[in-house]
Amino acid sequence: MRFNSAIAAGLVAFALLASGCATVPPQQAFNREAATIKTIQVLPMAESEIGLAFLNHPGQNFGLIGGLVAASDITSKQNKLRAQMAASKLDHLAVFREEFGNAMLAQGYTLTWSEPLPAKNRVARDRWGLRKAYGAIQGADAQLDLSLIFTGYATSGAGDASPYRPAVHVAARLLDPTGQQNLFTDVVTYNNITNIPTAIAVNPDPQYAYPDFKQLEAAGPDVAAGMKVALVATAKRLSEQF
Length: 242
Fold this sequence. Notes:
The chain contains 5 helices and 7 strands. By secondary structure, the protein is an alpha/beta fold. The protein has one domain (5-239). Strands 1, 2, 3, 4, 5, 6 and 7 form a 7-stranded mixed sheet that branches. The termini are far apart.
C-alpha cells in the first residue's frame, strides 16, 4: 500500500484528537475584576479543515499493515465527510467566529478578527496550536490566541456503543497588549471522547449521533446541522470564561 499525503493527513487528524492523554496547557482563570478590557484583537488563527477521528480503529491492532489500512479507511471517510459538509456550505470557522464574537459582545467585549494564516506563513505553536511566543500589539486592550485544534466528527471505536458525534476542541489564551502577561489560558472540548483531563467539557447533543459511517452519510444536511450545534455550544462556553 502506498503511503500518500492523503493517508498522512488522516493520521494527523487522528493523532491530534487521540493525544488527549496529555494535560491541557497550564490553565489561567480570567479575573474580570482585575482587568480593564473592552477591545480584544484576535491573532491570526491557523487554517483548519473538517476532520474525522476514529480512536481504537480495529486495523490498528494488526501492526504496520493494519495501521496503514486503518489510516486509509479514516482518510476515505474524512474525505466523504468533507464533501458532505461542503455540499451543505458549512464554513466552520465563520460559524465559530460569528458565534464567539456575538457572545463576547453581549458581555461587553469588542473583538477585532484577523484572517487565518496560510500554511506557508506558519508560526511556532505548541501541541494545542497556541503560539510559543507573543509580540506587542496596538489599538486593543488585550490580544487573544485561538486554536481550533479539531473540528469534525469523532468516534471512540467501532460498534453501536461508539457512535460518530460532532467534536470541537478549542484552545485559547488571552494576554495583555505587550504579550508578556497571561490573563487566561484554557481548553474547551465538545464531545471529549479522549477524556482530556481538566479541560472544560461540553456534552454533545444526543440528537446527532450515528452508530456507523453509512448512517452518518445517509443523514445528509443533518450532519452539518450537528456540526453547527457543536460550534455554537463551544463558542458560547468559551465566552462564559470571560
